[in-house]
From TrEMBL:
InterPro entries: RNase_T2-like, RNase_T2-like_sf, RNase_T2_His_AS_2. One of its GO terms (molecular function) is ribonuclease T2 activity. The lineage of its organism: Bacteria, Pseudomonadati, Pseudomonadota, Alphaproteobacteria, Hyphomicrobiales. Residues 128-153 are annotated as: Disordered. Residues 142-152 have a biased composition (Polar residues). Residues 1-28 form the signal peptide. This is Ribonuclease T2. It comes from Fulvimarina manganoxydans. Gene3D superfamilies: Ribonuclease T2-like. GO terms for biological process: RNA catabolic process. The keyword Protease does not apply. Belongs to the RNase T2 family. The keyword Signal applies.
Length: 366
């Protein structure tokens, strides 16, 4: 009858088992150190494969978390510490935020300094800088672009106002096009900082790569108030396809303000356009040709002489029909919620006219 294994043999077997499994654990997590700044609310997963999240733990926009590892190289998820959670180490998708820079850490350190003369002192200043950095992807103390007054910095911009029915032509299955596209007013494509190559300011490389690859739903969601989010839902149909995330990451990151101010001021400019005779002209010409010269004259009448020369008409081909896709309105000056759209236009350099004109596309597949 065989004898029972001795303690020494059992210990040896246990050691072999542990050694055999060690490489699997090492491959599952590559050690890494640093600080992760969340830019969206994302699930903190115990298991990436099973997507398990005990306690329904999420990141908080603007909050910092210790990084202890990553899953692969290049990473798709970071391994973060969530004090008080069970378990406290969780996986977060890289697109949920960014790795802190020295400027971020400097701002955070300022928020920890004791106050001097002002009872709020440097603590309040540091906290404000840290919040702005986390929300915009920049260190405003370093760039000089913080907007404490609620106004964006002076510069040049392009307001891209789409004719949504034209955008939807030929792609009716897109979520935002299932109704046939809007043809009652202009919709918001974006507000672009000039020059056009000024983009992705302070954005983490992982997020920029995701944006350039068209993975917009993987980008962090802009931090907006409920009122602004509702207004954006109505004015930007492309939000169903995460267009707002793309516009914020690529263009809004260079605007010098947080996402709330960037989109609120974009909406104000679009509202001024849609309250003008220019919108009426497009609505009246649905299904008919409209020349870019007519569009420019309408801008002159609505927003002052010379404003029409700041408008580029962009067209696209639709099975042999040339349709007007959007207007690109050049602006210069300090943008605020109560800005005069005409004044901003007249201060800007003249724009190329774009296409000679096209059909104002009505809703539905033509």
């Amino acid at each position: 009858m065989p004898s029972c294994p001795t303690r020494a043999v059992m210990a040896a077997l246990a050691t072999l088992v542990l050694v055999g499994f060690a490489p699997i654990t090492a491959k599952a997590q590559t050690p890494m150190s640093g600080t992760f700044i969340a830019e969206a609310r994302c699930p903190a997963l115990q298991s990436i494969r099973r997507k398990s999240n005990p306690g329904t733990v999420t990141t908080e926009p603007g909050a910092s978390y210790e990084i202890v590892g990553r899953n692969t190289d290049p990473a798709t998820h970071y391994y973060l510490v969530f004090p008080g959670a069970e378990p406290e180490r969780r996986w977060i998708a890289v697109g949920c935020g960014r790795i802190a820079t020295p400027a971020d850490l400097s701002a955070e350190a300022k928020s920890q300094e004791p106050a001097s003369n002002d009872p709020r002192g440097s603590t309040a200043l540091g906290a404000a800088l840290a919040r702005a950095t986390a929300r915009t992807g920049r260190d405003p103390a370093q760039t000089g672009q913080a907007s404490d007054s609620g106004r964006s910095p002076q510069g040049r911009y392009v307001l891209a106002a789409s004719w949504h029915a034209a955008f939807c032509e030929g792609q009716p299955r897109r979520r935002e096009c299932r109704s046939g596209g809007k043809d009652e007013a202009f919709t918001l494509h974006g507000l672009w900082v000039e020059p056009r190559d000024r983009a992705y300011c302070g954005v983490a490389p992982e997020i920029q790569r995701a944006d350039e690859a068209g993975r917009w739903s993987d980008l962090p969601a802009p931090d907006l108030t409920p009122d602004t989010a509702r207004a954006l839902d109505a004015a930007m149909p492309g939000r169903m396809a995460a267009l707002d995330r793309h516009e914020w990451v690529k263009h809004g990151s260079c605007y010098g303000a947080d996402a709330e101010e960037y989109f609120r001021e974009s909406l104000a400019l679009l509202s001024a356009l849609n309250a003008s005779p220019v919108r009426d002209l497009f609505r009246d010409r649905r299904g008919k040709e409209l020349a870019s010269a007519q569009i420019r004259r309408a801008f002159d009448e609505a927003f002052g002489r010379g404003s029409g020369a700041r408008v580029l008409t962009d067209c696209k081909d639709d099975d042999g029909r040339r349709i007007i896709a959007e207007l690109r309105i050049h602006l210069e000056g300090t943008i605020a919620p109560d800005s005069d759209l005409g004044a901003l236009m007249r201060q800007a350099p003249k724009a190329a006219p774009g296409c000679r004109g096209g059909i104002v596309d009505p809703s539905g597949d033509q």
